[in-house]
Amino acid sequence: MNRAMIEIQGLRKSFGTLEVLRNINFSVAQGGVVALIGPSGSGKSTLLRCMNLLVTPDSGRISVGDMEFDFGSRSPRPRTRALAAFRARTGMVFQSFNLFGHLTVLGNVMEAPLRVRRMPAGAARDLAMAQLSKVGLADRADQMPHTLSGGQKQRVAIARALAMEPQVMLFDEATSALDPELVGEVLATMRALATAGMTMVIVTHEIAFAREVADRIVFMRDGLVVEDGPARDVIDNPQQEATRSFLSHFH
Length: 251
Ligand code: ADP
Ligand code: MG
Prior knowledge:
The strands form two sheets. The protein has a six-stranded mixed beta sheet with strand order 6-7-8-3-9-10, with helices on both faces. Strands 2-1-4-5 form a four-stranded antiparallel beta sheet, covered by helices on one side. The chain is of the alpha/beta class. The protein is globular, with a radius of gyration of 18 Å. It is built from nine helices and ten strands. Bound molecules: adenosine-5'-diphosphate (ADP) and magnesium ion (MG). Adenosine-5'-diphosphate binds near residues 20, 38, 42 and 45.
């Protein structure tokens, strides 16, 4: 149970002359939940995108499950098919839900099983309905996205990511675009996933949620991991001045 599901070593990424990730080392146990916090511009989204290979690191190693990539000048560029297989292991949920407006809720969740996994329609439908049940929206399957609240849209986006049956779920400020009264239902869905044993990395400004649901908190600043420890310890008794200063904005 303590096996690492995600392991990152020596990860670096620059955009032009801007060093956004500087030698990041980071791991998440199987079934572990890590909250990634830090000021705007500290590199949280870039780190998450590297885990999904939406951003290609300049150097370092990333493994998810039994698949590993080594980035650097001496390593060959990973093949497209290997990248796709790797990417399919991580489900990503963004601040903006990006649902397909011309498809029903069910159509949105069936899309990847049908087109990426090439499942037969009946099996894709069953899988999609099972994921919609998980997020409490099976009864909305035939509605169009524009008829849903922001919280419901985000729960559909979570179901859509789950329909790839990923080994890891990555959340990038999944509740930041929501009206305050809709945040709770999305956090509840995330909490249920965590309780069910999903390995998760959550970028969030919901500090109370992070303290309660994450087992570890990683605080980043300027492309570096500044503090990494048990969630309650980091929130209640931060060891670094930078962490303390950041957290003071939330009280
Ligand atoms: P965070 O999510 O913690 O706010 P980001 O990872 O989004 O931080 O960004 C870290 C830094 O990298 C910022 O200065 C941002 O402007 C820059 N950055 C992110 N993506 C790109 C990109 N594609 N091109 C150039 N600069 C980028
Ligand atoms: Mg970000």
